[in-house]
Write a structure and sequence with these properties.
The chain is an all-alpha fold. Helices cover 96% and strands 0% of the residues. It starts with a helix and ends with a helix.
Length: 123
């Protein structure tokens, strides 16, 4: 028990002194709203500025999105026009090649007989 009593005696002296200092600092803080109000005003101003920047950025992003939508529509129309043109060209080329192939097929028997006659003459 002597150790416990010694610890209690040792704490009795600094603890009340510390409590008194803490109470004084607390009363000083409570009595000085003049110090905290400007800080709060600065923080509120920073928040207002940040909100304004975010609002401006949001408006800019909306405008960019609209421009992108318009560009997408324009490019889709151009791609569709090119696709139609290429399809028409492909069909025309297919028709031309089919006609040439048919003509070549018609000329093959005559060419075959001509080559056969030439070979017969050479032998």
């Amino acid at each position: 028990m002597k150790i416990t009593e010694a610890v209690l005696e040792a704490l009795k002296e600094p603890v009340p002194t510390e409590l008194l200092l803490i109470r004084q600092e607390l009363s000083a803080l409570k009595s000085s709203p003049a110090l905290t109000n400007p800080r709060l005003k600065n923080v509120n101003q920073l928040l207002a500025d940040t909100n304004q920047r975010l609002s401006d950025l949001n408006a800019h992003l909306v405008a960019q999105s609209r421009r992108l939508d318009a560009l997408r529509t324009e490019l889709t129309a151009k791609i569709e026009a090119v696709r139609v043109e290429l399809t028409e060209r492909q069909e025309a080329l297919h028709t031309d090649l089919t006609a040439r192939n048919d003509e070549t097929n018609r000329n093959l028997p005559a060419l075959q007989s001509d080559l056969t006659n030439r070979l017969d003459q050479v032998r």
